[in-house]
Amino acid sequence: MKSLSFIAAQLVFVFFVIIGSKAFAGNYQVVKNLPLDGVELEVGVAITPPFVIAGEGFNNLSGIDIDLIYELQKRTGFTFTEDRIHLMNFGELLDVSSSGNLDITGGAITLSEDREHLYEFSDDSCVSDSVVVVHNSSKIDELKDLRGKTVAAEVGTVSEDILPQSIASTVKMKHSATNFMQFYDVSRGHADAIVVDHAVAVDYIKTWQDSNLKIAFALPQSENGMGLLFKKDDAVSKHLTEAFHEMKMDGTVDAIVHKYIPHYKKQPSAKYASYRAQHQNNKSSI
């Protein structure tokens, strides 16, 4: 007859085999069930701190959108084509993206109504209004003061994209190749103002301390959600929007935003909230 100690040892062995097998099977199942495991995606961004920040030599990308993209990769399993995220200027980024050649697009992208027919939207990462940035010595302090002035903007942007029609028709646009050059042009007196998302303006003014720039005022009713763009009507995009929604619901998105904008507390206006509610109702339920 087998001793009680031998039987106990056998039971312990069987217990650990069963538990260990379940743990291994569970981990294995999670890895194998990632919906985009092994799928290569084209991902492009434009440098727009704090959403996309490039380290020395344009390496070591960081920022809100970069962290969101890597979290999406972690949750869905895709890989990057050529093992990298492509850096482009904003005009080129939207040209390439709108033609369907990017699976994920980031870089302080506003989720505006005029883009909705071209892309699938992620949930909002945050909400930002547009502000007018001027030189410290500027007397511009309200919308009508922009009449007849030179407004800096990235290549591909027209005045109607950023200003009310009554003002847009009166300004002269000075186009720059990069986001930074818009700020540089105003700082150095080559343009009178720039219209940009609030979070982007705050980051540039804070980090470029000798820029001599200030926020003059916010454009009325200019609030827009910020987020990522995905390819329209694409099976991959469905998995990306679902994963992003999970990130939003479990607090991951907010944690990433607060990492780069610690005091972010922006509450959307009733007008914007109504638009987003309608947008969510039109989307397939997740």
Low-confidence stretches: 1-31
In total, the number of strands is: 13
Helical content class: 40-55%
Mean pLDDT: 84
Judging from the principal axes of the Cα atoms, what is the shape? globular
Helix count from the secondary structure assignment: 10
- The secondary-structure class comes to alpha/beta
Strand content: 15-25%
What value does the Rg take, in angstroms? 24 Å
The largest pleated sheet is described as: 6 strands, mixed
The secondary-structure element order is: HEEHEEHEEEEEHHEHEHEEHHH
- Gap between N and C termini: 60 Å
Commentary on this structure:
With 286 residues, the protein is an alpha/beta fold. The chain has ten helices and 13 strands. The strands form three sheets. Strands 2, 4, 5, 6, 7 and 13 form a six-stranded mixed β-sheet that branches. Strands 10-9-11-8-12 form a five-stranded mixed β-sheet, covered by helices on one side. The chain has a two-stranded parallel sheet with strand order 1-3.
Tell me briefly what this model is.
By secondary structure, this protein is an alpha/beta fold. It has 10 helices and 13 strands.
